Design the sequence.
């Protein structure tokens, strides 16, 4: 199972304050749209997503089809296949991808400690 790029998505209270804090740690803007209350910051291979008012908890995020530079990979495990494999192992999903579609889709599951895990395919 190839999960693709990894990042942590943080539910922040103040996008500008969070951005300023992580910039002090050497993170630079990599993507996003502050006018829409979200930014992606990067420091080397480390990626942090800052999301104001979009979700309640911080979550682990994987992007099938992307490497750590958001460059498309030649081959990857489609999110729908990941979903099938997880369901076959008895993993409960909080949100599922439509199996009848192709392209961008996402699923959400929760680890045993209550941490949400987003598998978000953009291709």
Sequence:
């Amino acid at each position: 199972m190839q999960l693709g790029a990894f990042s942590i998505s943080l539910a922040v209270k103040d996008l500008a304050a969070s951005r300023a804090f992580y910039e002090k740690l050497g993170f630079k803007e990599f993507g996003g749209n502050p006018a829409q209350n979200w930014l992606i910051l990067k420091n080397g291979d480390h990626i942090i997503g800052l999301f104001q008012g979009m979700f309640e908890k911080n979550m682990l995020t994987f992007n099938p089809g992307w490497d750590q530079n958001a460059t498309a990979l030649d081959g990857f495990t489609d999110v729908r296949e990941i979903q099938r494999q997880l369901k076959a192992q008895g993993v409960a999903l909080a949100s599922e991808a439509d199996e009848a579609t192709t392209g961008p889709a996402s699923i959400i599951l929760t680890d045993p400690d209550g941490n949400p895990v987003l598998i978000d395919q953009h291709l």
The domain at 5-121 is CATH 3.10.180.10 (2,3-Dihydroxybiphenyl 1,2-Dioxygenase; domain 1). The mean pLDDT is 97. The chain is about 15% helix and 40% strand.
